[in-house]
Fold each of these.
Amino acid sequence: TQDYIDANPETVQKVTNATVKALEWMDSHSAEEIVEKLPKEFISGDRETYIRAVENAKAIFSTDGLISEENVKTPLAVLKSFNEKVAAAEIDLSKTYTNDFVGKAPRNVAN
């Protein structure tokens, strides 16, 4: 919430820094390399199928941590499709996220 962000900007920045670092790492590594780093219990079923699933899922992640209004329209549409309260609400998407902390995150992390 905004109250948490206002009260804990250092914590929010640290979480953002870690998230950006992870996104950059994911972008620069193959699905197989990503799966190799996961705890074994995260992999359900066949490892090769899991690798293919990660490869397909990589496209949904931001490569730099930035969020655009286009990025949040789809999740809102999905929520509206099954949640009447969300469907009836007028939601200003620009008030649901900020890129302020992402802009301060270190870049070009060594892999």
Amino acid sequence: MRAVAARDSKDPSGPVLTFGAGEWRTFLAEVKRGAYDA
């Protein structure tokens, strides 16, 4: 995986955010450890 592209599914013509593989792996690790729990 080189990059991950994400967008708001409620706005399909809106902007696309692109994350490098390292950024995405870091984000997933943070989600798994609960860094973004409300």
Amino acid sequence: MLDQDDVLYSQHFASLLAEIHGQPQIDVVYSGCKVVACEKIDQRVNKVIEVMNRPWQPGRLLIGNTIPNHALLFRASVFHSHQFDEDFEIYEDWEFLSRLSLSNLTFVHVDEISCEYRIFSDTEIQSYIQVHEDKGYLDHAQKVITSILKNLELSHFDKIIYLVNHLEKQQQLLTSQLSEQTQQRQALAQQLEQSHSLEQLLADTCAAVGIEAAGRQGIAQLIGRTLPQQTLFSIILPVYNTEAAILRQTLLSVRNQAYTGWELCLVDDASDREETRQVLQAVQNDPVLAERLHYLRRDTQGGIVAASNDAIKMATAPYITFLDHDDNLHHEALLSLALKLQQQDYTLLYTDSRMIDHSGQPMHTYQKADWSPETLLHINYINHLTVVKREILKDGLRADFNGAQDWPPF
């Protein structure tokens, strides 16, 4: 049965027929339905105000209809014994379905939304009940209930008992879930309060020792200060005609390291780009970078291997880490490596890495395999960020591997 403003989705009949076909014990099958509010003038769909998709419950139709006509599919035999009552112009479908449910016909619910019940109005619609109230339909409900009462027999009370029992079980379940959720909420509130207290304690501690950064960044700096204050890492940074904005980001990522046990070995490979030279000049005047800086400007361009080897010669720390002139170090990069080296005297350490665009947005994350010498024979899966003992690189990098200079030592 279809009204002029009803909508059936393409799979509607296929879904219902698939459920009822070959199962003669099923008399009526129905699916879920969206109740959609539409503007009366241009018939534009505004919003879904309700979804009618309830599983079958014996007795539920005795207190109200939750199944639109066009969501139903009947066997033809149903209409041999039951018809619509012509005395009902309003809620005739509810009265009809209530009689079917009292006749012990078998209803089956297909848990799928396959149709729409569209409501057109000049005013904003908030609910399905509101529509019936505005149209004055609710006054007709008493007539349907009177008809249902006339048809009730003692055996029908089993359906009502089932419905009441089901509702009581649902209430008990919801009460139990509410109690559990309340306990969880109280526990979370307590954890949140403890977290705020801890956060305040850490903030006060950071401020007391001169750390201005807040949150995780401040905590990372605080942890960094608990480590031995030695120069543990020599950062090898060859530069050639790098775009100023990119080079500033690279240098800033070094400057902002939570762990301060580093020195910067920076070699300018004879850059002739003015903006690059200006940034490199500013580095030598930066109060944080300058005190940890070993700087060399080459007279002639020698390539990345020559520049890196010059930087390695200036290194004094026990570990060397390579940094390209367009790389960004995570704030906690050196801290993570320093903490690892507190546990064991490693020869080489490497981390996962991430490729980012010019705006800093992640493009790809490289989650690297565990140490695998065999894999290194055919691909440099390590790449950056890597730290290696300086003694391993005492002879420098091989000039004939320009562009892949860090692979052979690995």
Amino acid sequence: MARKTRKQSTRRVNPNDNGNGHGEPLIEERAVREQPLAAYLEREYRRYAIDTILDRALPDARDGLKPVQRRILYAMYEMGLAHTGPTRKSARVVGDTLGKFHPHGDSSVYDAMVRMAQDFSMLHPLVDGQGNFGSADGDSAAAMRYTEARLTALGELMLADIRQDTVDWQDNFDGSLQEPVVLPARFPNLLVNGSSGIAVGLAQRILPHNLGEVCDALVYVARRWKTRGRITVRQLQRWIPGPDLPTGGLLYRYRSDGETRTDMIAQAYATGSSTLVSEAKAEVREIGGGRAAIIVTELPFQVLKNTILERVAADKARFTGIADVRDESDYHGMRVVFELTRGVDPQDVLERLLAGTQMRASLSYSAMALVRVGGVAQPECLSLRDLLVRFIEHRLDVIVRRSRHELERARARLHIVEGLLVALDDIDAVVAIIRRSQRAETARNNLVRRLKITEAQAAAILEMPLKRLASLERRRLAEERDALAARVDELEGLLASRSAQLEVVIEETREIKARYAEPRRTVIVDGEAGQEAAALEDLTEAA
């Protein structure tokens, strides 16, 4: 259907009407465009989809956070909820986030906050929750009026140096406050804690990874920064063999398709998209009397234990050979016992459990994230190398901006200290000038002329307390001047050298690994047959 344009007339009363309603009508003509409904809906829906992707569904590749998560953490930072301090009511955190930064409903904010506090959803939670924050069995969290929260140590590291001009800022929804566009993020949150979301026309899911392994990979890429484009997946898998899921379990590396085997983990890391298979950790034990039991201690990521138990109870014909099912889980961990009847092959029952329940489950991997291109955020599917490079680029930008901010402050303070030392060298003349001057402005101008100093230095001299006249105070000022001069030289050298900036990234990354790294929870196996851990020798290709 061709687009048509026609004129539409509207009648308005002349404001110069004489009051009898007989004024001259003013004719206003407006263009009304007619267009195909399908084309209009497609264009408007695409616009809505883009807004959803940018504002809600996808994380930023730099800090790994969606807007609601970033706003929660920043609101907690503003409230002073450090990991060493007391907790505050979750309702207060949600209220501050809603009122200042995220006016989209309290349930969405609280749900996002709860997830950041769950150690079965994140390898390293960013929020330290006190009270009932849900369970791996699918139990929901208590109402926000009952729970309390504060930042974890790693949650604080997401905001480290935020007041040192390290990130860009933008107006909040009503223009009354400023909020960060991205957090400084001292550790690679997107890879370590993962992310999942559904937007219009796409789904995103990045699985969690071991913090220590990711830190090693970051150091590896930073050491080869000039040739980063030639780093291969196999080289990176020396350090990151695969995802590390909060609930542990087994993760298959290969998928067999006839006579060929595909490395699904390598595919995920190379293309940013794949489907992995996770399996529960189960052990067969003899319990006496010729009977055996299957003991399950770990489940696939985001699989509910009750779902498996209900499935077994609902289909007893399929799961014959199971005499009893006991849930012995407690605060020490998960433990489900399947007692078998006498004479049953335990491996056969285990295989039926794996095939007929979610004890073996598929995990989609789609590394979609927002990437800034020319200052505009757009979704992009990222490889493992891309994710590591994007984070290092972000940290380099943070380090440069932090160093410039510190350099400006150090230079300003050095300038003042040098002026104070000049005044102390000729203190008698300074006192005489001040005593002769009737006003502070006159004294400042006279000091500038006599001592050949700047107005800022003169103002600092006028504000100098008398205790500075002591010889010990003068020595302290001289030591401060020397320390500031050395720091200025150091910062100028850092800003002039990309290799020095990369060394800072490496040093900070190693500090985080030394303090927060934990042993791997998920065991990577080659495939279903044998369930033997994958050897990494074939991944240790020379760099």
